[in-house]
Specification:
The complex is a heterodimer of chains A (278) and B (291).
Chain A lengths: L9 H13 L4 H17 L5 H16 L13 E6 L6 H14 L4 E4 L8 H12 L2 E3 L7 H14 L4 E4 L9 H17 L6 E7 L5 H12 L4 E5 L9 H9 L3 E5 L7 E3 L2 H8 L2
Parallel strand pairs in A: 1-4, 1-5, 2-3, 2-4, 5-6, 6-7
Antiparallel strand pairs in A: 7-8
Chain B lengths: L1 H10 L9 H17 L4 H15 L2 H4 L4 H17 L15 E5 L6 H14 L5 E4 L7 H12 L2 E3 L6 H15 L4 E4 L8 H14 L3 E7 L5 H12 L4 E5 L9 H9 L3 E5 L7 E3 L2 H9 L1
Helix pairs in contact in B: 1-2, 1-5, 2-3, 5-12, 6-7, 8-9, 10-11
The structure holds guanosine-5'-triphosphate (GTP) (2 copies) and magnesium ion (MG) (2 copies).
Chain lengths: 278, 291
Amino acid sequence: DLFGGGEIDEEFYEELEEILVSGDVGVQTTLKLVEELREEIAARRIRERSEARELLEDILGKLLQTAAEPVTPEQPPLVILLVGVNGSGKTTSIAKLAHFYKQQGKKVLLVAGDTFRAAAVEQLEIWAKRAGVDIIKQQQGTDPAALYFDAVNAAVARKADVLIGDTAGRLHTSDNLMDELNKIYRVINRNLEGAPHQVLLTVDATTGHNAVAQAEKFNQTLPLTGLILTKLDGTARGGIVVGIRDQLDIPVSYIGTGEKIEDLAPFDPRAFTAALLQ
Amino acid sequence: SLADKLQNTLRRLRGKGKLSEQDVDAAMREIRLALLEADVNFKVVKEFIASIRARAVGEEVMSSLTPGQQVVKIVNDELTRLLGSENKSLAQPAKSPAKFMLVGLQGSGKTTSAAKLAVHLRRSGKKPLLVAADIYRPGAVDQLKKLSASENLDFFSLEQSDPVAICKAGLKFAAHESLDPVIFDTAGRLHIDDELMSELGTIKDQVKPDEILMILDAMTGQDAVNAAVSFNDQVGISGIILTKLDGDTRGGAALSVRAVTGCPIKFTGTGEKVDALEPFYPDRMASRILG
Ligand SMILES: Nc1nc2c(ncn2[C@@H]2O[C@H](COP(=O)(O)OP(=O)(O)OP(=O)(O)O)[C@@H](O)[C@H]2O)c(=O)[nH]1
Ligand SMILES: Nc1nc2c(ncn2[C@@H]2O[C@H](COP(=O)(O)OP(=O)(O)OP(=O)(O)O)[C@@H](O)[C@H]2O)c(=O)[nH]1
Ligand SMILES: [Mg+2]
Ligand SMILES: [Mg+2]
């Protein structure tokens, strides 16, 4: 344990850099954090490594602190849109969110917004059945913007409390696909004031520096309200969310901790920081 | 760019006649940061830097007008050498059908790559069979079935819930229908999931694949080594397919996994369509990693 005991020397800072880098915090963010820690340690004349831990947990905790309560509109439906690169966990996370809201007694409606990939609609349909919620869908190849126009109307007509929408996986480097996403966003927004109230970007915890570029490009396409850090049940520590918060001020809303419908939890900065510094 | 940064670092050092340890450290630091920003594993970076240190600031560099570019060339050449491999084509066993098993973490691109591989092999005259052995993920069998149907590929699945039985039956079916090779799509799994890793071992024992290909997402960061080493230790990997290279990830995971496991990278995934499978080019990957 790096903070177990002993004095603070250059070796301490080198080892700390390695812990952060190996957790995918990223090079620039790591250098910045270590520099900030150095300054604090000097300012407070800290000598013991154990005291340095508290200081670092404070710095990270402040940076990662959960944003204010997530947006909920005065009038239902609350509209949540999930976006993210291919395979990052959007469809599975929607199932988990559906379950989460259904447990609270809310009337949930899903939108099978991935009209591109083979069996994407079928995948979400199975989850909708398991969660006990309804789903709006069209056949593969439908224009997703048109689908969302209908879906928002349906949600209002059916008096749904929560509308959760899926989108096809896409790389942020594909201009066409990012334009398509922007169009989906504008169609939802024009059709229902204030919607989508939440736009969640799924980020696979195994992702390295590229996650920052993903968050940046997606955020330029439509306003992200939070991240879902998925697959945190693996050995990856997901440190890249620190850089995303630091550079883009996008908070983590939830974490994915498995492949079952219950495997979703609100983001806990302290637990995350403790695991990161292991 | 790295060349510019090194140029700045090294220009100050030229004409000094002899470099101090600190001077060399400064140049090595720039290279180290570039590789870490490319997501190369930090331990692999350490070893890499140590191995090129002497050459990277040797006579040929210091007598050059553009030492920065010279160093980058040395680094690029060494990366290319490490990434390359003699053994980058698929196994061609004497006994038919050939058997290729696809494994990897969740969402890495296995199912899509299975279809791509089948299309690729059919172009070279083979008659591949796709076997849907993922019975866990909702719609997984349906996904492979649809991909097969739209490409007119032979497909096998069972209304069964035992991946081992499905794979064995798929193999029998291929032999009966003279289909070759058999490509097994398996469920995504964590290397720390003992039960699911043991299942892979059982499929391997029963089917005896000629290739076990790990499908690895090119945007994977430091964890790539953990997963690859674990899959290799527990199941054995004969090759890697690096996916989603159509993005802008630097792809340092390629070097990490190659350096630590020695497994050759056999193909790259460069898009979502079934024709988006390309050979792996070590020199292109090296320049990409260096940024
Ligand atoms: N272990 C683990 N696996 C997860 C988690 N979230 C999703 N997965 C798995 O990751 C894989 C991909 O999940 P999907 O929900 O299909 O991802 P997606 O973003 O919708 O994928 P595309 O629509 O193809 O872009 C599936 O095998 C999921 O079961 C998680 O938190 N932990
Ligand atoms: N852009 C791009 N997308 C890819 C590539 N390979 C796969 N994908 C996409 O990545 C997502 C996940 O692919 P899958 O084939 O479902 O991944 P998987 O490994 O089978 O997922 P699990 O079975 O859940 O573990 C899908 O949206 C694919 O279309 C690639 O090379 N480039
Ligand atoms: Mg999906
Ligand atoms: Mg699959």
